Amino acid sequence: MSQPDFSSSLIDSAEHHRPLRESVAKLVGKFGRRYFQDAVAAGKQPVELWQALGDAGFLGVHVPEEYGGGGGGLAELNIAIEETAAQGCPLLSMVIASIVAPIINAFGSNSLKSAWLPGIANGTKRMAFGITEPNAGSNTHKIATNARRSAAGWVLNGGKYWTSAIDESDAVMVVARQADANSEGKRSALSLYVVPTDAPGITMHRIDAALKTPEKQFSVFFDNVALGPEALIGEEGAGLQQVFVGLNPERISAAAINNGIARFALSKAAAYARDRSVWSTPIGAHQGIAHPLAESYIGVQAARLLTARAAELCDRGEDAAEAANMAKFSAADASLKALDQAIQVHGGNGLSHEYGLADLWFIARLHKTAPVSREMILNYIAQHSLGLPKSY
Ligand SMILES: Cc1cc2nc3c(=O)[nH]c(=O)nc-3n(C[C@H](O)[C@H](O)[C@H](O)COP(=O)(O)OP(=O)(O)OC[C@H]3O[C@@H](n4cnc5c(N)ncnc54)[C@H](O)[C@@H]3O)c2cc1C
After folding, report:
1. What share of the chain is helix, strand, coil (3-state, %, to 5)?
2. Which tens digit of pLDDT belongs to each residue from 158-212?
3. Residue 370 near ligand 1, beta carbon < 6 Å
4. Is the pLDDT of residue 290 over 60?
5. Which of 138, 195, 366 for mutating ligand 1's site (highest number of atoms within 8 Å of CB)?
6. Cα 164 to ligand 1 centroid, rounded to whole Å
């Protein structure tokens, strides 16, 4: 065996999942880690890869067939995202599409669906997602960005931060408070809006993030941004319930990207440990090298199982919150452990650009903090799974 066997029947439950895995891996493998690194280093987008993924239908595996997608769900998207990352090309933009497409599909009007879903499916349209605010952070109930009714629709004021890839997007899905709702005594009267990124009144400032990814992050300000009636997604004031249709998929997709990074790292580490000899045997014969890799493999496979299960629950319309949270939590930890050990196995080369490992660190590390932090996941599990009292 030349490569670790990650595609075992342990993970893939449906028969069509293996061919999907192989097709995505083959397509992305033609581009590879170096292509991705070069694009990031040059400050460019990996447009050829994005377009190839869109043309092949892999960006839209979770979009209904009537809107040009593959008609699958999170199970298929999990595979597409993981395999793309496993080839050394982790795409946060695929994670963003996992939030917005399910929300539009579930709550958007027919015209909103027709306007957005086919483009999201084939990669020609993008929509960023803005929920996080500087003064609210993990506490969505404190969101201050607000939408006030006007004769023509709504007027949006406020700001978001850490909004990813908004510079490449045609619109941003914004979670905003109803400015004129009587929310006395209510925790949240939130709504979701599709805001074109070229609307007058929007400004954005790049955040200097450590990540080595094509997607950049921005602080975004809305100063009396006029929105037409078509901007509202679903029901006014039902934004909090609606947004959760995208947040579990986001956690599952974030787990998928980390699982892919972990596989990339472990594959490289195993190959290096087999080939590299500095004494009389390959370094992989030393248990100090082999055991941490074996332990990392177990951690990654466990995270992948959780992720696949969370995707399955989501697709069945069952409560996937606990599984999605645990999948993201486990995948973040497992991938960081695997990546760190892969860097260690490579000795000094682990820190080189050439071997393509060290610069994956920040995107893997990101998912301990985002889209929901590990502490907020532990809060959720403590409260909902263990029945412990809430402290905040
Ligand atoms: C690279 C990157 C990309 C991102 N992309 C997007 C995006 O596209 N769209 C978007 O909307 N957001 C995005 N985010 C934001 C991300 O989702 C938030 O950073 C994350 O949700 C945490 O919010 P915060 O940064 O405000 O931290 P805070 O909420 O201020 O938390 C700070 C620390 O306190 C802890 N903490 C807070 N409350 C509690 C509590 N009750 N109990 C225990 N600990 C607690 C947190 O766990 C954390 O460790 C991105 C962030 C990054 C770094």
Report:
1. 55, 15, 30
2. 999 999 999 999 999 999 999 876 555 455 589 999 999 999 999 999 999 999 9
3. yes
4. yes
5. 138
6. 13
